[in-house]
Amino acid sequence: MRLPCIKYPLNLKNYNDLKINALVPRILVVVLVPEKITDWIKQTEDELCLRHCGYWVSLREMPDTENTTNVTIEIPRSNQLTPVSLQTIIQRISFGDLP
Questions:
Q1: Chain-wide mean pLDDT for the chain?
Q2: 49 - beta bridge partners?
Q3: Residue 62 and residue 14: Cα distance in Å, rounded?
């Protein structure tokens, strides 16, 4: 059974960079890949197939932390990075909303 979120240890500097209120909103994208690259990518002249999935999360306005090296981020599995979700994120940002 899959957990409802992905726990990802993020370097403290990257956490701080991603949580600021920047002019252009930022998102964290994490791509899960299998350990064996041959299980991840299949390529022929007709297609390029990447297996597994990318997930995204906005860290904007997340709280400061007392951690000194990294922060574990929880990314909901429902936040799959797909063509439709990317288009939705871009549309929201173009209207001045958050991702």
A1: 92
A2: 42
A3: 12
